[in-house]
Amino acid sequence: QAWFPGIMGGKALGNILYGISNPSGKLSMSFPRSVGQIPIYYNELNTGRPDLPENAFYRFASRYIDESNKPLFSFGYGLSYTTYQYNSVSLNKKLIRQNSHDELIVTVEVENTGDYDGYEIVQLYIRDQFGSTARPVKVLKGFKKVFIRKGEVKTISFTITEEQLKIYRSDLSFASEPGQFDVYIGSSSEDLTLKESFELIQTS
What we know:
Blueprint: H1 9-17, E1 84-91, E2 95-97, E3 104-112, E4 118-128, E5 139-148, E6 153-160, E7 167-168, E8 174-175, E9 179-186, E10 194-201
Parallel strand pairs: 2-10
Antiparallel strand pairs: 1-3, 3-6, 4-5, 4-9, 7-8, 9-10
C-alpha cells in the first residue's frame, strides 16, 4: 500500500522490493476483513459485553457470528524485513496531580531481533478506565520513530502530562478527571503486550 508516493514513488518501491531499503511505515487507519465490519477503528467505545480472549465461550459477548472482531490490518500496523521485541516497560511514578506540572515518564526497551538494521515506530496508547463521558478503549498519545541496528537494544521514553489526559465533558469543558489510567506500549494498536497503570489525583 503506497498511497500517493509522488514522482519518486517508483524508485522507493523498487528499493523496498529489492531489499535496498527496509520499510518502516505504519497504517493510519484500520483495514476491515469484510464490508460487514465497516466502520472499524482502533479507538472504539467500550461495551458492557467485551469479546475478551479469556471469555472465548461467553455466550453474550459482543462479537460477529461469522466474522472476527479484529481488523485485517490494524491502525499502526506496518511491515519490515527485521523483527522487534518489546521488553521491560516501566513508570517513574504511579501518581500525578491535577493542576500541577507533574510529568510521568514511561520507558520501554526495544530490541532488533532480526538480521537487518531498521526503523521502528514505537507507539504509546492510554486508556481512561472511567470518565463522566464514554471513553474509548485506547487512544494514541505518542509515538517515536527510532533507528535500531540488528542485535541492538534501545531504551525509548515518553512523557505523560495532565494535558494529555483531558477530555471534552458533557458541558463541553475540556478538563482532566481524577482516576485510573492504563498505559500500553507496542508496535500497533492490536499488538500491545506491555501494560502499566497510574492514577491522576485531585488536589485541593
